[in-house]
Batch of 2 targets.
Target 1
Amino acid sequence: MTLGLTIRKPVADDGNAVHRLIAACPPLDTNSLYCNLLQCTHFSDSCAVAENGEALVGSLSGYRLPNSPDVLFVWQVAVSEAARGTGVAGQMLRNILRRPENAEVRYVHTTVTETNASSRAFFRKFANGLGAQWAEEKYFDQDMHLAGEHPSEFLLRIGPFDLAAAD
Ligand SMILES: CC(C)(COP(=O)(O)OP(=O)(O)OC[C@H]1O[C@@H](n2cnc3c(N)ncnc32)[C@H](O)[C@@H]1OP(=O)(O)O)[C@@H](O)C(=O)NCCC(=O)NCCS
């Protein structure tokens, strides 16, 4: 499945395919197509897509925290079912972190629900691979912040790390 895999920054023309991929990857919430277009353009330095031939098989969206630019916040990671388990998600995250424009990033933050085992395992493997510390705290509460409609989201803080030293 990884034959011909290309990881790159997204562009506006990817917006539609990113939107459809996320819709096909529960438990991810869909956002508006317009939101995905902004990620693919204004935030392309901190986002990645994975292509296998013509097919878009992966998307990772993120941004540097406005007041803490050494933190990459990972918003959503989606890999098409057929491409899972081959390292696509990990390659997208490392591709972003290896870009010269992200050289000062020392932390990855993300939020996960209590039961998203694949997401937790993915970030745990990433942290362990770098020998990085891991901290976790409740961030968005189901009742207080998410209108009772979505399970609580826990903030994972990974770092500090030095990717170059770990290569
Ligand atoms: C989570 C997701 C992005 C992982 O994509 P992926 O390309 O298969 O991940 P990788 O191959 O890079 O996996 C890296 C590590 O993550 C962990 N992992 C990934 N998928 C897993 C699963 N289903 N169950 C348990 N661990 C999993 C493993 O530790 C894996 O390393 P290993 O293969 O050496 O055991 C993908 O399963 C997905 O799109 N899920 C639905 C959407 C979602 O939940 N997104 C939130 C993710 S952060």
Note: The chain has a mean pLDDT of 95.
Target 2
Amino acid sequence: MGKRNRIVTGLDIGTTKVCAVIGEVLPDDRIDIVGIGNAASKGLRKGVIINIDNTVKSIQEACKEAQHMAGTSIDLVYASIAGDHIRGFNSRGVIAVSRKNREITQKDKARAIEAAKAVAIPTDHEVIHVLPQEYLIDSHDGIKDPVGMKGVRMEVDAHIVTSATTSRENIIKCIKKAGFDVAGIILEQLASSEAVLSQDEKELGVALIDIGGGTADVAVFVEGHIWHSYVLPLGGNNITNDIAVGLKTPYMEAEKIKKRYGFAMTDMVTDEEMIKVPSRGNRKNRYVSRKILAEIIEPRVEEVYRLVKENIENAGYADLISSGVVITGGSSLMEGMTEFGEEIFGVPFRRGEPIDIGGLVDVVNNPAYSTGVGLIIYALRKDESSLDFNFTEESYLKRFSRFMRERF
Ligand SMILES: Nc1ncnc2c1ncn2[C@@H]1O[C@H](COP(=O)(O)OP(=O)(O)OP(=O)(O)O)[C@@H](O)[C@H]1O
Ligand SMILES: [Mg+2]
């Protein structure tokens, strides 16, 4: 009898929604999405958990729904992390290959990565990813995999991502309290980029911006690897707030109006179309033109785009994103987002949603699911090298026993 296919679960703990995505790994390594569960997120602010109990409830609700849909139960999840405590920077690790035959082994690779990790970071922060970009052997650069090559001195260039220790611990705490184990914690935009970017885009150079409710998460890929990451604590919630204040309407109404009529760019709307705006209290509804609405939205979108652009320029990657920018996350759904982005950045923009997956494609074909789906893809790809993972002890043991079971 054939073995049961492996099940992998992504848990996207976002500012507006907690989303569990269950994937089944087919024998040919393709992924079928077999379950999705969503719950409103009430315990986060700008990507960071501020209320444990509310977050636990949301996790339980999302996972319950996803398990029900998939007809299977889960115990282990890969979760996302975001927030402006996240820092990304590049580092080089150097080691000497002292063995007689000078042949570089997997162990040397791991040692070089450890060396790259040895940088000073604040005591209340910790490294969550070490993402190798290229290896250098005796100063020859551009080597993708050094194992088996010969050399005396090996170096690795890597992108390091750090997080506030407490933020990461709170994610683990919530998931455990909800009754699940954590297999790994993955930077939100790293997960999203796995789901929406093509290999070609990553090779040519591309910037991903995942614009959610609380944060805009940025990742820049050049020559296939991540070189820059950044979290801007602004997102769709700020736009909704602006609308609520500008149109003097309750927040929930502002959210509905935004999703239905919102436009990121004033120039693309005429002032003929009028929309109904419920007032606060029991005053009468009012009517405003869609252009007025766009005039409220545009400055906030412009702020997000300009701050991201400035950040990418300051980091030195503006000229390296030949494929342009891919936007994803729920806020990328607003009309005019790609056009306005192109105007500000002066490079091509496209909206990205999960690609190359099977199963419940109609449901996950939405930029708000990029992180949830991407967590699964990232977990599977990284499983092969499993170099940059921050497994909890318990999960590590489980992983190890699964590894033993599968091999022997
Ligand atoms: N059609 C739409 N037009 C405009 N905004 C939209 C639309 N659909 C969803 N949004 C916005 O997308 C945001 C939610 O996106 P998403 O689900 O990606 O966020 P999240 O993952 O919960 O948050 P974050 O990643 O910031 O922690 C909300 O602000 C919502 O208003
Ligand atoms: Mg998100």
Note: The domain at 199-353 is CATH 3.30.420.40 (Nucleotidyltransferase; domain 5).
